[in-house]
Write a structure and sequence with these properties.
The complex is a heterotrimer of chains A (372), B (255) and C (504). Chain A is α/β, with parallel strands linked by helices. Chain A contains 11 helices and 16 strands. In chain A, helix 1 packs parallel to helix 5. Chain C folds into 2 domains: 258 residues, Aldehyde Dehydrogenase, Chain A, domain 1; 198 residues, Aldehyde Dehydrogenase, Chain A, domain 2, CATH 3.40.309.10. Helix content of chain C is 42%, strand content 20%. Classes of the chains: A alpha/beta (372), B alpha/beta (255), C alpha/beta (504). Chains in contact: A-B, A-C, B-C. Chain A: Pfam families: LuxE.
Chain lengths: 372, 255, 504
């Protein structure tokens, strides 16, 4: 690893340590965040030609910026095109890829030369938004973990959650052939009997078939107080779509975990840090997402891609200091709105329909696929 | 800040009018490439001056008479700042304005003309040619060529110098006609005799007095006068002005 | 509570202007309907509201019945010449700048559609000229050798007699992307002597209504066979009722609209669809000489700017041949600068968030390609999404997100590079207009190649949005597709003679 990388990692780790637990934004955190974000951007422009050239075309090179808010966010389609890595990509310890397409060429890739920063970010954020003052919990994972998918950031996240915060009885229940529902039920019954609080972790869509199964078997748990459920990622067409309120209602009914014990995490392969809603940390149910101090959202006006005023719906961009090796700022295809210092996720921005008889993109793609 | 976010290249910017233009563009928010040929020390001073007042600048050495050196200077600007928005062609082959020591028409050699044409016209041509594709890319650009009011009123007939500047004015107008379609404006700035520059040092007091007497604003130009006009032409305020020759001479020449 | 002072109250009143109420429907006399406000928009004279009738299945059926009855009473008895005369007379009124309906359209359409007022004014005027009598006659003559066939049995060259009949009632589904696109369809339906039930889009429900009023001014009884009603597309109940009442269905619109209507039209009922189509421009090196360059770019840019590229006749992309005085890259820069100038003359409409983001998405894609050193370049309006020109150094075909987003493909030869790039689009039946600028000696060769892959119309740049009378709309007929024919076969008339008692 080049010495500049080591130095940057040191700076980011220092920031995470310093501001890891600051609940509110202090002016010092904001100032240091801005300085470090710009420093990271300059570092990335120096060592990542694809990002530098993109920034150059957008006329947002390091010397041209006045604030971290001006850092040109890399569109997530960029992660599909190029190896966005400051360290040589072929030397990466791991490469996380986005899901959603069968063609590996078309997947977004995030290169990890080391996991030092990733782990520090995950651990610090998880502690604040999921664990609170509790050091460890019996952690049961219902989505594929690291052993099944070495290229998934979520899988690593789930495995690390067990390593960092799980008690001995923790484990993963997703196998090569799917969810081991019977084992999971036995595990939960065990917890119920012993009165040990549980932390359930999984993709949002993984809970739907599980709840269906519990209903089929007519099983209900009264998990010990302090039990928590984390879901992430939405449905993505992987299960039927259900309203989140229904899901939380079911969590209470089937597991005995109230809404205030549930937390939704928002993460992306293109980010090395995660957002959470504040429900567990504050005790008040909310869907507003917040990040740790080194991860900040920007809502951009869809017409100008410049920061939009609070309360206006726009496209989400994220500035993540833990993205030291790829791009410190990324542009998503998600809509959001800033409120009370957090943001509400409003789903993906839709494709544009032609207003009349002119050929629309979607239509053309459909007819071409029909051809293939 | 009329020029926020713009990138400007000023040739012959180490001293005199060029340095003043560079500083003025920077003070209005432009990032400035200070082009120079021989006087690195002076160029560095210009850069320092800009930085000291909060502007951004870098010096770049190039002989603009060389196509490759001119192109390299433009590419340097693009590499560092993404593109180039403003070009000020101020460089010329060294010339001293000495009414007494000047060569008369019958003493002028063709090489004298050639040298001035090389510096004024060929230099501007090389820089413009390199900058054009980048300005086209943005559908906008400002080219400002520094000529002289001696074209209209040869108070002192500096044959070679003024002929070359006349050619540069012709180049300016033709370029304006061609590049307008890309949203690029090309204008000339024609200073009168400007005090406080190295070139004007040898202009004697009697000539100065004569010029002042004929000038409605009753003084000689100072570099800041020229720089102010350059900022105007470089800015969006002058977006619909092209192919013009703006005289900055206190009204000595009108029309 | 204190009452506001008199002056203050008056001032509020002055500021709060009563909206202008615009009837966005046209119903035959005797049909009453409850009316609701469907949309509000701004005009230069203050706010306006669109009034639409409340509809249900029964109401729609009674409208259709009434239309058919009135058609039978009057329209069916008119001759082709009568109908042409009346349509042309209505259009002539529209060609008078002082005509109140025209002035109303010019005031309302910009706020309603978002398109630039000057562009609408220009395009409407050009469009109305295609309804002059000579154009209508040319049109009918193009499709029917003997237009009188629409009036009576006419002798055929091959012997026998034929007559053409139009449907009793045509149900039209109009799109709202191009103001007035509905008029041509209405005119053809009237020539076919059919009653007209037009469903307009709320995006532009006005022109059909205003034209129907013009027809009513010329001949009230003719206009009684026309009803124009807007509703939000996709209402299965209303659409099924309209289809059941009609004996021909004509649909304009995107793939979704066409398919959703097609799905509920019973087999055997006449169904004509003008579905989604893409158009392109092709520019030969001979149109890029220094003296031709300005005109070439200006005409192309106008085709892009009018109606913000939303017409199916608007070009998605342009193929620029190498060897002219500018290369394709500079051409892209020039086109971008021209679109920048047109933004001042005919400002682009405001976009929805998705429409704007779609443009940013495409820009980003090619910025990323450019950053990788690929052969793309993006020429984009600063700040917003007013215009975008994307240069690509390999010919291809991609659908534009429209709203003044143009792709410039560099090609070595139009024949060898551009045509193959369009082949798959053409084969899918999606290629419509090709604006071409080439040497006369190349024109027919190009036409042959483009025609073979499925292109429908070649036209000069700058007129891509103004199809001429007689064009084969989407490669088909306009009138014939609506008609059915009855023949008296050769010999029948001779044979009939023997039944004349006086026959020898």
């Amino acid at each position: 690893m080049r010495p500049e990388s080591a130095a940057i990692i040191r700076d980011v780790l220092q920031y995470i340590e310093r501001y890891g637990n600051s609940a509110a934004d202090s002016p010092a955190a904001e100032r240091d965040f801005g300085a470090l974000a710009l420093q990271l951007f300059a570092f990335q422009c120096e060592h990542n030609a694809a990002y530098r050239n993109y920034a150059k075309i957008k006329r947002k090179l390091p010397g041209q910026l006045h604030s971290w808010r001006e850092i040109p966010p890399m569109p997530i389609q960029g992660f599909k095109r190029s190896a966005l890595s400051c360290e040589p990509p072929e030397e990466a310890l791991a490469v996380f890829t986005t899901s959603g397409t069968t063609n590996p060429e078309l997947r977004g890739r995030q290169y990890h030369p080391t996991f030092d920063v990733w782990d520090a970010s995950m651990r610090t954020g998880f502690r604040r938004f999921v664990m609170g003052s509790v050091p460890r919990l019996r952690t049961l994972v219902i989505s594929p973990a690291e052993d099944l998918n070495a290229n998934s950031s979520l899988s690593r996240y789930l495995s690390q959650a067990i390593r960092f915060f799980g008690t001995d009885g923790s484990g993963t229940y997703f196998r090569h052939d799917g969810l081991a529902a019977d084992e999971l039920i036995a595990g939960l019954q065990d917890c119920e009997r012993s009165g040990e609080p549980v932390l359930l972790l999984g993709a949002t869509f993984a809970y739907v078939p599980l709840l269906d199964r519990l209903q089929e078997l007519d099983v209900r748990f009264r998990l010990a107080p302090g039990s928590r459920i984390l879901d992430t990622g939405g449905f993505k067409g992987q299960s039927r779509e259900v309203p989140m309120d229904w899901l939380y209602g079911q969590f209470e009914e089937r597991f005995g975990v109230p809404r205030s014990g549930c937390v939704n995490m928002y993460g992306m392969t293109e980010l090395c840090s995660q957002y959470y809603d504040d429900t567990l940390a504050s005790g008040k149910p909310t869907t507003l997402k917040r990040g740790p101090a080194w991860l900040r959202p920007l809502v951009l006006d869809p017409h100008t891609l410049l920061p939009a005023p609070d309360g206006q719906v726009g496209v989400l961009a994220h500035i993540d200091l833990a993205n030291w090796n790829s791009c410190v700022a990324i542009l998503t295809e998600d809509l959001g709105v800033m409120r009370d210092g957090g943001f509400e996720l409003l789903g993906r921005i839709g494709g544009a329909e032609a207003r009349g008889c002119s050929l629309a993109v979607e239509q053309f793609i459909r007819s071409n696929e029909g051809n293939a | 800040m009329l020029l926020q976010g713009k990138t400007a290249l000023v040739t012959g910017a180490s001293r005199g009018i060029g340095a003043e233009i560079a500083a003025a563009l920077a003070s209005h928010g432009a990032v400035v490439i200070v082009g120079y040929y021989s006087r690195q020390d002076a160029a560095e001073r210009t850069v320092e001056r800009i930085r000291a007042s909060g502007g951004r600048a870098r010096a770049h050495r190039a002989d603009v008479r060389s196509a490759s050196e001119a192109a390299a200077m433009v590419e340097d600007a693009v590499e560092h700042y993404g593109s180039i928005d403003i070009v000020v062609n101020n460089a010329l082959s060294p010339y001293s304005f000495s009414p007494s020591a000047r060569r008369t028409a019958w003493e002028q050699e063709w090489d004298d003309y050639r040298e001035q044409l090389e510096g004024s016209v060929h230099g501007a041509y090389n820089v413009c040619k390199a900058a054009m594709p980048h300005m086209q890319k943005q559908s906008s650009g400002r080219i400002i060529n520094i000529v002289t009011n001696l074209i209209d009123f040869p108070v002192v007939p500096y044959h070679d110098y003024t002929t070359a500047k006349s050619a540069l004015l012709g180049y300016t107008r033709n370029l304006a006609a061609e590049l307008g379609r890309f949203g690029i404006t090309v204008n000339a700035l024609a200073p009168g005799l400007t005090q406080g520059t190295d070139s004007s040092r040898d202009t004697k007091e009697d000539v100065r007095r004569d010029i002042i007497r004929l000038t409605p604003l009753q003084r000689l130009a100072v570099p800041q006068d020229i720089a102010g006009a350059a900022v105007l032409l470089a800015s969006d305020l002058a977006g619909f002005i092209t192919g013009q020759c703006l005289r900055v001479d206190g009204g000595l020449v009108m029309g | 509570m204190t009452a506001p002072g008199r002056g203050e109250g008056d001032m509020n009143k002055a500021i709060k202007q009563e909206p202008l109420q615009v009837q966005a429907y046209f119903l035959p006399p005797g049909i009453e309907a409850d009316v609701t406000v469907a949309a509000r928009f701004d005009t230069p004279d203050g706010p306006a509201e669109l009034l639409v009738p409340a509809l249900n299945e029964d109401k729609l059926r009674s409208i259709a019945d009434e239309l058919k009855r009135r058609r039978e009473e009057y329209l069916a008895s008119l001759t082709t010449a009568d109908v042409v005369e009346r349509i042309a007379a209505a259009a002539e009124r529209w060609l008078d700048p002082a005509y109140p309906h025209r002035q109303l359209a010019e005031r309302l359409l910009p706020g309603l559609t978002g398109y630039a007022a000057d562009s609408i004014r220009l395009q409407l005027k050009r469009y109305m000229r295609t309804f002059r009598k000579k154009e209508l006659l040319r049109f009918i003559g193009e499709e029917l050798d003997d237009p009188l066939m629409l009036d009576e049995f006419r002798p055929r060259k091959s012997g026998g007699f034929s007559r053409a009949y139009g449907p009793e009632l045509i149900f039209h589904v109009f799109s709202g992307n191009v103001p007035g696109v509905s008029l041509w369809s209405l005119a053809m339906g009237l020539v076919a002597r059919s009653a007209q039930l037009g469903k307009t889009s709320l995006a532009e429900p006005l022109m059909a209504v205003l034209f129907a009023r013009s027809l009513a001014e010329i001949d009230p009884r003719l206009a009684e066979a026309i009803a124009i009603v807007p509703w939000k597309g996709g209402s299965r109940e209303l659409e099924s009722a309209a289809i059941a009442s009609a004996d021909a269905v004509v649909v304009y619109g995107g793939g979704g609209t066409v398919e959703s209507v097609r799905a509920i039209v019973p087999a055997g009922k006449r169904f004509v669809a003008y579905g989604p189509k893409a158009s392109v421009a092709l520019i030969g090196r001979e149109a890029l000489t220094p003296d031709r360059l300005n005109g070439t770019v200006a005409r192309l840019a106008a085709d892009i700017a009018h109606y913000d590229q939303q017409s199916c006749m608007s070009p998605h992309c342009v193929y620029v041949e190498e060897g002219g005085s500018v290369d394709a890259r500079s051409f892209a820069a020039y086109a971008a600068a021209e679109l920048g100038r047109l933004q001042l003359r005919w400002p682009r409409s405001a976009l929805t968030d998705s429409e704007a983001y779609a443009i940013h998405d495409v820009r980003n894609r090619y910025w990323l390609e450019e950053a990788e050193g690929g052969g793309a370049a993006v020429y984009a309006s600063p700040g917003g999404t007013d215009w975008t020109v994307i240069y690509r150094d390999v010919p291809g075909f991609d659908v534009s997100p429209l709203n003044r987003t143009l792709v410039v493909y560099r090609c070595r030869s139009l024949e060898d590079d551009a045509v193959p790039a369009l082949a798959s689009c053409g084969r899918e039946g999606l290629l419509q207009t090709c604006g071409v600028a080439v040497h006369p000696q190349r024109l027919f060769g190009m036409a042959e190649r483009l025609g073979r892959i499925g292109a429908n119309r070649l036209c000069p740049l700058g007129t891509m949005l103004q199809a001429k009378a007689g064009w084969h709309h989407d490669g088909r007929f306009n009138l014939i597709d609506l008609l059915r024919f009855a023949d008296i076969e050769r010999g029948t008339e001779d044979d009939a003679e023997q039944y004349d008692p006086d026959f020898e």
